[in-house]
Design brief:
Length: about 375
């Protein structure tokens, strides 16, 4: 049985590491939470904040996403600062080919399992009146949700401070781990951090820690580009996606994707899909692209930005506000399609990484499953 004197160490201040800290505190551990930078700056704060059930592959991945979705909502009711909103999503068909693919998928049991239905154009407008462009229909998923990626980590840490009690949750920014030593990790100053359980969740830096390098052949890094606009006056009642998302999310592998034909031009060059989320201040987060071959270009590229903005205008049927910030991000992805890579590299030391673009969606269940694998009672 877990006792209050049991200690744990979590390495990595992103969403996967932070959720491990949350579950460890809930299980009764005293937690030291280490972050290499002065604040998390990786993919966990450079994403849409989507809790994206709709695109998950049937089987284990969908089950993990659904458990995580329930946990996000549960914690969101306790921690309003994470900005959880059960807004659902619309994946828009802009032509007859995309419409045919979506209608076929909506009849498949895979769609039913995740609560997806096909909407005719009038129903799309009723669901989200801000969609004023020409649409041929859409897939609607009521289970999709969003959180605020730039706020969620801080809100969860503040919640942990309050929930754990004095001294039982300690966040240590600027603490870079460089080695493992038995059931502990060593930081760059020589400090040793040990406990009954050590979780290393350093995201795209999966090969920076001695002892974890052998995991690298099972992973790859993926780079994306995104942007955010000034406030858009109409309120969007759902998140939005376009038909190219069908090419990238594994849920749709059972759909007749060949009807879509190949991607053209800029979209193919940048492995591009449109995702669009409205932030509480009205700004639109728009993306994204995918680059798979390292070394990644250090520069942001204008061509996909213009393509994404054009797609947003077509769906909204309105001009998009000026872009006020753009960024790139890099995340780790399992090459075998697994939900994540979870492996004990030393007694009591577990590496958890590689959820790919699923990190924000699946972090709660990933953390719960790590504790289960390590023999920690719920």
């Amino acid at each position: 049985m877990t006792r209050r004197e049991d200690r744990a160490v979590v390495v990595g201040g992103g969403i996967v590491g932070t959720w491990h800290a949350l579950e460890l505190v809930a299980a009764g551990f005293s937690v030291d939470h280490l972050e290499a930078d002065v604040a998390p700056t990786g993919a966990s704060v450079r994403n849409f904040g989507l809790v994206w059930v709709s695109g998950r592959r049937s089987g284990e991945e969908l089950e993990v996403a659904l458990r995580s979705r329930r946990r996000w909502e549960e914690v969101g009711s306790e921690v309003p600062g994470i900005g959880f909103r059960a807004v659902g999503s619309l994946t828009i068909a802009g032509d007859s080919a995309a419409r045919d693919v979506m209608r076929a998928f909506a009849r498949h049991v895979d769609a039913t399992a995740r609560g997806i239905s096909f909407l005719e154009p009038d129903d799309v407008l009723a669901c989200n009146p801000a969609v004023g462009g020409d649409v041929e229909g859409a897939l609607h998923c009521a289970r999709d949700a969003v959180v605020e990626p730039r706020l969620a980590l801080g809100a969860l840490r503040a919640h942990l401070d309050a929930k754990a009690g004095p001294g039982l949750y300690r966040f240590h920014p600027g603490c870079r781990v460089v080695a493992t030593d038995g059931g502990a990790v060593i930081d760059s100053t020589g400090g040793r951090w040990g406990g009954e359980l050590v979780i290393v969740a350093t995201g795209a830096a999966f090969d920076h820690l001695p002892g974890a390098g052998e995991l690298a052949p099972r992973l790859r890094r993926v780079r994306l580009q995104m942007l955010e606009t000034a406030p858009f006056a109409p309120r969007l009642t759902t998140s939005l996606a376009d038909a190219d998302t069908l090419r990238y999310y594994p849920a749709y592998e059972v759909a007749p994707l060949s009807l879509l034909g190949p991607q053209d031009g800029v979209a193919a060059d940048h492995h591009l899909q449109l995702l669009l989320v409205q932030r509480p201040d009205g700004g639109l987060t728009i993306g994204d692209t995918h680059a798979y071959e390292e070394p990644f270009d250090f520069a942001l590229c204008e061509d996909p930005t213009e393509e994404l903005l054009a797609r947003a205008r077509r769906i909204l049927g309105a001009e998009v506000p000026p872009v006020r910030r753009r960024w790139e991000g890099v995340y780790a992805q399992c090459l075998d399609g697994a939900v994540c890579l979870r492996q004990q590299i030393r007694p009591g030391v577990w590496v958890v990484t590689g959820p790919g673009g699923r990190g924000m969606t699946c972090a709660p269940a990933i953390a719960a499953d790590t504790l289960s694998a390590a023999g920690v009672a719920a």
